[in-house]
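Methods: example folding runs. The two proteins below were folded one after another, and each record is reproduced exactly as written to the output file, sequence line first and structure-token line second.
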Amino acid sequence: MWNTGRILTSLAFNVVLFSVEVLHSLPYSNFQSRKHHGYKEEPQFTEKYFSQTLDHFNFNNLGNGTFSQRYLISDKYWQKNFGPIFFYTGNEGDVWDFALNSGFITELAAQQGALVIFAEHRYYGKSLPFGEDSFNIPQIGLLTVEQALADYAVMITELKQELAASNCPVIVFGGSYGGMLSVYMRLKYPNIVSGALAASAPILSIAGLGDYRQFFRDVTADFESVASECKDAVRAAFHQLKELAERQDYRGIQSYLSLCQRPSSAQDVHQLNGLLRNAFTLMAMLDYPYSTHFMGNMPANPVKVACDIMLRSSDPLTNLKNTAGIVYNSTGALTCFDLYSLFRECADPTGCGLGSDSLAWDYQACTEINLCYESNNVTDMFPPMAFNSSDRELYCSKRWAVIPRSNWLKTQYWGDALSTASNIIFSNGNLDPWANGGVRKSLSSSLVAVNIPEGAHHLDLRGSNDADPVSVISARKTEADLISQWVKTERTRLKQPF
């Protein structure tokens, strides 16, 4: 889907090269934009492990066993026994990647005197319940949204006792799937969580309530917004690739796109189309106004950079190759694309990434997480690549011996019937292809939609930067004010006698 569990290793290709600095967010006590110079700051967090229950819902299963769940904690700004607890509901990746790319939470902690905790999601990073066997059947069966939420509920409750913080209000934060988990925490455990900031959380489309054409249509719209000719150039390049494939000119495809191995089948061409489409997807998601190192190395404004390259010459396939190089070749070390090592097809058409985290996400996309998006070359600029519920069921039954439960999230976590909930911020950026799968209109005074016209994928969670658009600075101010209000209200409630 979207985050660092599926970070693409920044591989190289000898075309367009970019030098990207790692940005780390510096905490401060106001929300004016501040420049970061790219130097590495010492981590503010201490890495710890929590003894977590393997199966929260079966007392006889696995002998009530436990596993070590990783979390990061910082009390640098905490007003002990009084300040709130800001808890990040970790999603599909290494928890450090989220902590180092969510500087707003630390900035807000400095302003509001909060304790900050980033929890790692079970089966990701180093939080593997069964070690190397975690991705075997049946061990992987304990990877569910429900188990993850229970992990966080137990961790919050026990850490509050351990830290003598029983009267400290808890606000949960998350981006993308992590933002969905923050919403679900507020819905399922309102006794533990006082409010939630859900950034770029596609809770509607992932619950099966969206349009299957929406995602790649919105990726296309990002590039079209830079220049209408850009969309046409991308479509023309894919059309030329299709013509070569129809003639089975695999030598030509290899030469034009500098592939390490010559394609030899329609499946190889399908894989190539997926790899190329994935590059545009990542650039649209990560279209930040400054260079980043998150889910790979990206230059500032990668969509504009891509369009400049796509329109650079009269050779569409060369332009396509060089544009894909923004994502796959940022270090310039490789001389060719390896189709099957750079991209892994899975139950998530937007990309599962690589490594063991991709296995976990693939399983989740085969069970509860609905990601039946497809491109059609009519409403988008990509080759037709279908992925409907039947395709998903066939793949998942073969890969994981499971049948997806397409309606489960809608049943378990309310779908679009959210009006009776409270204290949730749904933030979305107009540049983010995930945005229209989420809540774009406020549902009440405490179910607030914050829309960021110049925002990409959870830009508001990132630390402040001089290049930030005014809209994200304003969004963070709105979020900070709402969270401060929720904390104050919860403190008042806790003081009241029963």
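Second run, written to the same file directly after the first:
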Amino acid sequence: MAEVKKSNSSLRMGVSRLLVSFLLISSCHCQVPLVMWTSEGIARPSLDPPAVGQMMSVGQVKPYLTSALSTTPHTVVLFLQDKLSMEDFTVYGGVFGNKEDGAFPSLQAYLKMASSLLVLPSLARGVAAEVPALLQEVLGSPPLYTDPSSLTQQSLPTDPALLIIGLPYGSGTLTKDVLHQNDEIIDKVLQTVKAANMPYTAIYTGLQPSRVIEYSSAMSAQLVGRSLLQSPTPSPVKPPVVFNGTQGACILLWADTLNVSFQRRPNQWDSEDLAHLTFIPSVSLSGSSCSNNSSVLVLNYNNVLNFTSLTLTFMMTKRFFPVSARHWALVEQVRLEYDGQTATFNGSRDIYSPAEYSYHCQMVSSSIDPQLVAFNNTDNAKFWRIHFTDFQIQGFNVTGDFSYASDCASFFTGGIWMGLVTSLLMLLILTYSLHMLTQLRTMDRFEDPKGPGISVPLSE
């Protein structure tokens, strides 16, 4: 009985450390958390938690993993997400009371039921990528990279075993949906392992931080004390994609994110941000071309979203419109080609600019205020979602760098027009009212009761 109470007390202290870490670690930068728990009924030796704010190196993480796995099950399931930061838990995890709307209901349930919990809230950049090698060294077993959908059809390896499940990460408005899908994958995998009657140790971490935060709290006052009088160091800006024709650069492309999502099953979308594969290092532009009246930019990728090959193509044309008496550049189509299939989006209705300018838009999407629409009702585009942020492209009259940007957000928005029209209407009503008041005529003669009556001619 005493051991059970001690285990429950340790679990409550672990959960408390996890929540406190979510709230206090935000002053660190480039941190990646690691959460480790065991299946129900399995306890591990107690370990001293790391100091809050401590960036842990590989040498500091290894003793924790070695001690934790000394008595816990040697069937380790490692959920390795592309990106993960503390802010993903605080923003999307229901930490502040909105648990019904959280993105981690299954993970929270497993942490509550776990007999043992280990939280390393701040791993230094690159340490999480070494976790598989550290686990392989501790367990003495090679890792098995597997797909969640095919796990039920495979025979699970015997103890010791290291299963590695890769999880994607979405950006922008898709982040919460992708994290919720990852939470469902975690639940599905652990249910499969549990059905095989195998006690397990689960680890959830990320390859790199999803957010980079500057020091801003009192914990870092000593570090920023002298830098207050200095200009902040600007973050490096990734160069645009440049396609060179016969006479030099002829197509430019830049974006903060290039997020594409594919629907493999109903209500399940797999997402991938192609930006880190596009700009640094530069992506292959094989198949691109440019001329005076048409330009085609082809971005070629390999092994993306479980497709052997994926091609993102921007087809642009230059047309003369007599009404405006000038040439305009239009993004006619955005095309996705994947493993022999094609999804085509039409963008000519909303994505255009004067031919001598570049086109810029804070958000280009096929689902939110869509500028990209499926080419027809039977096209494969219905299985895809495109979401670009801070998007800029120029396919004509390139002189080295982007020309003046024609932004998709017009100066007079719908709200501005509504305010102007309403104000004008109220001004007209006020003017008419003042005019009516000035036309009122009052009596200028009054009858004396002691004198004769006043005769007022009808003409007055």
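Comment on the second run: Residues 414-438 form the longest helix (25 residues).
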